[in-house]
Design goal:
With 206 residues, the protein is an alpha/beta fold. The protein is 40% helix and 16% strand. Strand 4 and strand 5 form a beta hairpin. The protein is globular.
């Protein structure tokens, strides 16, 4: 706890004064341009990867960057997606996987998750990705296929489907490589399998 308190103290001393005007504006304004759905992994920090300031990203982080397909009832992921799209009006949604993902490694290598039943049940949302990657081997293939699968799940949410129909939102699938810092675009829309590097100015018009 001492380390956390020291971090708060450094923020108040070194960071906040330089951004006091920004935080004053954010106190009454919330207009993020992008919904970023990433993994809960502590090594994947959306604002750092995209070079974004506070207030620019609406972030949802789940184990394995999984997005359950729309279903009756409500859950935190569905509610966050709906709020970002229908209320805040984000214009982009990024689903970002990453190298060395623990969730995808567990699936790819068939780890025994008997001691983590909640994790095992949650990872069923990656069944489609695991089926597509079967036989190819390796976590990296599954990571990429999982981004494809979660984009498809994302499109089943009514708020997203409506926004796509109106051309008011675009979907992006990325993979972040921890060792190199490289971000690869694996699926820029649900109808293309073109792979390309994400350019540094990809969000320049935000």
């Amino acid at each position: 706890m001492h380390d956390l308190a020291e971090g708060v103290a450094r923020f108040r001393r070194d960071v906040f004064p330089a951004k006091e005007g920004l935080f004053a504006r954010l106190a009454t304004e919330h207009r993020p341009h992008t919904l970023f759905i990433g993994c809960s992994d502590a090594r994947v920090v959306p604002e750092l990867i995209l070079g974004c300031e506070p207030g620019e990203l609406f972030v949802v982080r789940t184990a394995g960057n999984l997005v359950p397909a729309h279903a009756p009832g409500t859950d935190g992921v569905a509610a966050s997606i709906e709020y970002a799209v229908a209320v805040l009006g984000v214009s982009r949604i990024v689903v970002c996987g990453h190298s060395a993902c623990g969730a995808m490694t567990a699936l790819a290598e068939g780890h025994d998750l008997a001691a983590a039943p909640a994790v095992a049940e949650w990872l069923r949302h990656a069944d489609a990705a695991a089926a597509r990657a079967a036989g190819d081997g390796g976590t990296s293939v599954l990571v990429r296929e999982n981004v494809h699968a979660q984009l498809a799940n994302l499109a089943t949410h009514p708020s997203v489907a409506r926004a796509l129909a109106r051309n008011t939102v675009t979907l992006h699938g990325w993979v972040f490589d921890i060792a190199t810092g490289r971000v690869t675009d694996v699926h820029s829309d649900l109808h293309s399998d073109v792979h390309s590097d994400v350019h540094s100015d990809a969000f320049a018009d935000a």
